[in-house]
Write a structure and sequence with these properties.
The complex is a heterodimer. Helices cover 0% and strands 54% of the residues of chain A. By secondary structure, chain A is mainly β. Chain A is globular, with a radius of gyration of 13 Å. The chains are: A mainly beta, B mainly beta. At the A-B interface, strand 4, strand 5, strand 9 and strand 10 of A face strand 5 and strand 10 of B.
């Protein structure tokens, strides 16, 4: 049973446009959500996070939205750049007791 | 600051052999994690340490996997004997831990293990 789901294995976007990556979760006890970016042969790199008491967090070109009632979060990248091409993992944490990753979405930003 | 260090980067062994991985977390990070990432999947937590104590090892196959963090800093993960299905990338991560809520984990580059 997957507690964190990323239903799109891959996504292609034109450079300069918006990339939207989606994530759904099932455990209502999760209180902290994160996005990681992973390049080949490297470990995941922390990108942005959001606490369950917020519905939006921004950091430069990256914005994460949280909809607790729908148990859904999304990552928006605007504008998308070729260097953003990577695998993006959604992760959720339950007060530091249960850290779970989704299966990842491969983003390709086309020049 | 220096990141999470892992070694070796790559390891190839035959099934039924043993193997060990080493991790040095970010200085000052109390919590250390070992993950297994199989190709095409997200990382799966194997074990979580808080200083030198185990917080969660519910997904660690204890008949063949073991891990220790004796002095609350470095950690080793061992597989003995290895099976074909253990082929994966083994990632180590650390976070501030005690007294610090909602802190991200920071990952090393992992060890890619291939079982022949």
């Amino acid at each position: 049973d997957q507690q964190v789901k990323q239903n799109s294995p891959s996504l292609s976007v034109q450079e300069g446009r918006i990339s939207i990556l989606n994530c759904d979760y099932t455990n209502s006890m999760f209180d902290y959500f994160l996005w990681y970016k992973k390049y080949p042969a490297e470990g995941p790199t922390f990108l942005i996070s959001i606490s369950s008491i917020k519905d939006k967090n921004e950091d430069g070109r990256f914005t994460v939205f949280l909809n607790k009632s729908a148990k859904h979060l999304s990552l928006h990248i605007v504008p998308s750049q070729p260097g953003d091409s990577a695998v993006y993992f959604c992760a959720a944490d339950n007060y530091g007791q249960n850290f779970v990753f989704g299966p990842g979405t491969r983003l390709s930003v086309l020049p | 600051e220096a990141g999470v260090a892992q070694s070796p980067r790559y390891k190839i062994i035959e099934k039924r052999q043993s193997v060990a991985f080493w991790c040095n977390p970010i200085s000052g990070h109390a919590t250390l994690y070992w993950y297994q990432q199989i190709l095409g999947q997200g990382p799966k937590l194997l074990i979580q340490f808080q200083n030198n104590g185990v917080v969660d090892d519910s997904q660690l196959p204890k008949d063949r996997f073991s891990a220790e963090r004796l002095k609350g800093v470095d950690s080793t993960l061992k597989i003995q004997p290895a099976k074909l299905e253990d082929s994966a990338v083994y990632l180590c991560a650390s976070s501030l831990g005690v007294g610090a809520t909602n802190q991200p984990q920071h990952f090393g580059d992992g060890t890619r293990l291939s079982i022949l």
